[in-house]
Amino acid sequence: MIDPKPTASHFIDGAYAEDDSGTPIPVIYAATGEEIARVHAATPALADRAIAAAKRAQPEWAAMSGTERGRILRRAADMIRERNRELSELETLDTGKPLQETLVADATSGADALEYFGGLAGALTGEHIQLPGGDFVYTRREALGVCVGIGAWNYPTQIACWKAAPALACGNTMVFKPSETTPLCALKVAEILKEAGLPDGVFNVVNGAGEVGAALVGDDRVAKVSLTGSVPTGRKVYQAAAAGMKHVTMELGGKSPMIVFEDADIENAISGAILGNFYSSGQICSNGTRVFVHTDIKEAFLSRLAERIGTAVMGDPLDEATNFGPMVSEGQMNIAMNYIAKGVEEGARLVAGGKRADRGGWYLEPTVFADVTDDMTIAREEIFGPVMCVLDFTDEDEVMARANATEYGLAAGVFTRDLARAHRVAAGFEAGTCYINTYNDAPVEAPFGGVKASGVGRENSKEAINHYSEVKSVYVRMGDVEAPF
Ligand SMILES: NC(=O)c1ccc[n+]([C@@H]2O[C@H](COP(=O)([O-])OP(=O)(O)OC[C@H]3O[C@@H](n4cnc5c(N)ncnc54)[C@H](O)[C@@H]3O)[C@@H](O)[C@H]2O)c1
To answer: What residue stretches are annotated with the Aldehyde dehydrogenase domain (predicted)?
Structure first.
């Protein structure tokens, strides 16, 4: 079993770094409420050192061939896979998510990103554009410089890798700040990248809360900020980045719709609803938390859903039989419990769960509300916990209008056997990441991200390259230059 205590609180310029004068940050294991490690927030001097190291290392890193950069990233991917169990245990201790999940969805997803962008690094090229008279323009795809990555607490290993891999593949360097709730995993990613041969200063990790993040975002040496977090934080970070005209990627919250038509395969639709509401105890940004079910199949859907929820195995997250774990923190559990109370108060019908589980740690039962209406608080606000809202509908046009009537636009899903309808509905969704007859798959090959208040830019896939590089065009004249005088 891995010892969760890190060597030190930060990883700067190729080595662990510590300054005990920073605010202490206890790491609480969500399954027991016990403190399992402690780090210190970065002092301004440490944050400055991290940016200085990234700034110094960037030109040399960008000057290496893409193939060489990619080789290091791919080596790190292999090392992550070899150490998957140890990294998954750490992710479980950091977040409380069941080992059954972390073994397949966290470090391995990070490795996928390093492997994919490592493979692309050598293939990044510009264009040649032929013009009249033999003139031509060529374009160079250039790195942005120092990028700041800021993470949420639900997928600490994955988020660090999803940001670092495309950034580094393009020749940027990065200072990454994990969420203060889960400060451990990104340090391991930094350690592995170093062991894989990454030059010092190319990937740095500084821990701390919002003020450390704000200091990084406001630094003039930073060219780009990529945030995974809530919409309110996104607004602040986007504004601060705009002041310095910095590039941004914003991966923010959602209240995504999932529409289940009367002709859907009900077992598959219920599987999608379970994955989209209860995986990671509901703490996933793209979750389909507004489940619109056609009235013809509503009662069948609800009774089978309740039956299947009854088979969930809630328990010690380190036991691989457990498939439903605690929430990340007491605070997050209380937020979800307040929403459950609001749901009851506003007249929704509780059909499963609704209570804190009778055990230590921050466990909340998988909860389902039926008869939810669009105006209820639980149907409008992101809960970020294991709370599913089931809403009724009868007509496609009506449900599409209701599905899109939200400031969010991260994800959306549809379950139907009618192919034409499936594609029509997917085209009509105001969302960046859509699913037909499935939910929440996020392969590295596919773009991931939101529209409207849910975000700006895309992670993963070739799209991410556009968000971590910029194009310079060079005009070449082959003849004389004509001037008016
Ligand atoms: N779209 C996605 O890919 C995605 C993925 C996971 C989580 N999320 C969203 O994240 C939220 C949950 O995560 P959270 O509670 O950690 O979010 P949060 O917004 O509270 O914090 C996110 C990060 O921002 C930092 N931060 C806070 N204030 C800051 C500031 N002023 N300047 C710079 N950094 C600052 C935090 O320290 C943390 O590291 C949910 O809304 C969820 O939907 C989105």
So the answer is: 18-474
Evaluated on CA atoms 274, 294, 368, 343, the torsion sign reads: positive
Secondary structure (3-state) at 316:
coil
User: What is the C-alpha separation between 68 and 182, in angstroms, rounded?
Assistant: 32
How far is it, in rounded angstroms, from Cα 168 to Cα 77?
A: 13
Ligand 1 within 6 A of CB of 408: no
Closest ligand 1 atom to the C-alpha of 217?
A: 33
Give the integer Cα–Cα distance in Å for 99 and 96: 9
Structural tokens at position 85? 């169990």
Cα distance between residue 273 and residue 399, in whole Å: 17
The Cα 175–Cα 52 span in angstroms is: 10
Q: In what order do the strands lie in the sheet with 136-143?
A: 128-130, 136-143, 469-476
Cα 470 from Cα 59, distance rounded (Å): 15
DSSP single-letter state for residue 364: B
CATH homologous superfamily of domain 257-436? Aldehyde Dehydrogenase; Chain A, domain 2 (3.40.309.10)
Q: Which of 89, 115, 191, 251 is the catalytic position?
A: 251
Backbone dihedral angles phi then psi of residue 405, each to the nearest 5 degrees: -80, 65
Strands 247-251 and 222-228, by their bridges, are parallel
C-alpha 445/C-alpha 106 separation (Å) is 16
Q: Assess whether the C-beta atom of 388 lies below 6 angstroms from ligand 1.
A: no
Distances (CA, A) of 64 to 70, 169, 181, 201: 10, 11, 36, 15
Alpha carbon of 251 to ligand 1 centroid (Å):
9
**What was the ipTM of the complex prediction?**
0.97
pLDDT digits (tens, 9 = 90+) for 285-305: 999 999 999 999 999 999 999
Bridge partners, residue 175, by sequence: 148, 204
Residues of the chain with pLDDT under 50: none
Cα separation, 113 vs 121, whole angstroms: 12
The domain locations on the chain are: 10-252+454-472, 257-436
pTM over 0.90: yes
What are 306-360's pLDDT values in tens digits? Answer: 999 999 999 999 999 999 999 999 999 999 999 999 999 999 999 999 999 999 9
Domain 10-252+454-472 in this protein, CATH class: alpha beta
Asked if 10-252+454-472 and 257-436 have one fold, the answer is no
C-beta of 42 in contact with ligand 1 (< 6 A): no
- Compute the distance between CA of residue 301 and CA of residue 273 in angstroms, rounded to an integer: 10
